[in-house]
């Protein structure tokens, strides 16, 4: 009598690797980063005397969308588009300024304005975001001086230190400490409580964080963590020429992001608005101008933000007369060191500060390679030597 056939074991699918250890994932991050870097350079070049902030934001978003749609054309299921809406924040305005047509006449840039440009792209849920700071009209004949030069160089050098410190095994508060020391060397302060986040697929505000200039309560509540191999971080360095204290702006909030919250909203309008947000933007930030009906969206967002189904990115400011500089980059923590995948335009020759960093430890860090150079292959029969 023959034996019954053995039952086949069910095939268990391997979980998808959504870290940058997966070359496909890394390529998507880098593709988004290339778009971000290209568009931010275009927006910076267009940020001239008389330029409309509204037009710069609209054109930046349009350029991101067009560039994103031009890649990965064969896979129709891949989401592609804006990873962070274009924001143009001037002088003491810290972040998130991206006006609407309905706001009336848009403010215009003028020579001498310190302009922070922030934007990002995403491919298949992998976002790459960047920000840079320029001064309108600056040139070799008209260099950046005084408080503007101090705060700009403090932010730039802080970003350069941060990227060297975000490597596997390092602790997040090491970045906090170094940025504080660099800002102090230039007579500046990091913006209080500013957060940088780990990124994952469809998540730009992951659980691991870096904080700048925490107050006593923030320091007590903040969790230490180690950076891990194959993690991705969006590192946001913001430095103020003032005391770094944040205050809410009178400008209306225009940027929002759906959270993972699942509170059952009561109003039909609110549910319809959140449904539209989910379909169009997923869990990436968006500008209200991208909604079908701006007035209806504002109504629905009242309940949605109250119950944290949607987060609001408020416009924030420093005191009048102060300047805030920002450098933001996306970095991958690879086994052989950090890889900054976004690039932002800056001309250091235009910055003339009389201050400098005297701290030997920090100067040594800034002079070091971001990633150690690979050892050269030795010739046959010879000993290997350090490159």
How does the SSE layout of this entry go?
Blueprint: H1 23-46, H2 53-69, E1 80-90, E2 93-95, E3 114-123, E4 126-135, H3 146-165, H4 172-185, E5 189-190, E6 195-199, E7 209-211, H5 216-221, E8 232-240, E9 247-248, E10 255-258, H6 268-281, E11 286-287, H7 294-306, E12 310-313, E13 316-317, E14 324-334, E15 337-340, H8 360-367
Descriptive overview:
This protein has 387 residues and is of the alpha+beta class. It folds into two domains: 23-253 and 314-363, Creatine Amidinohydrolase (Alpha-Beta Complex); 254-313, Orthogonal Bundle (Arc Repressor Mutant, subunit A), CATH 1.10.10. The protein is 30% helix and 21% strand. Strands 5, 6, 7, 8, 14 and 15 form a six-stranded antiparallel sheet that branches. A three-stranded antiparallel sheet has the order 1-3-4. β14 and β15 (337-340) form a beta hairpin. α1 (23-46) packs antiparallel against α2 (53-69) and α6 crosses α7 (294-306). The protein is globular, with a radius of gyration of 23 Å. This is Proliferation-associated protein 2G4. Residues 28-213 form the Peptidase M24 domain. InterPro entries: Creatinase/aminopeptidase-like (IPR036005), PA2G4 (IPR004545), PA2G4/ARX1 (IPR047113), Pept_M24 (IPR000994), WH-like_DNA-bd_sf (IPR036388), WH_DNA-bd_sf (IPR036390).
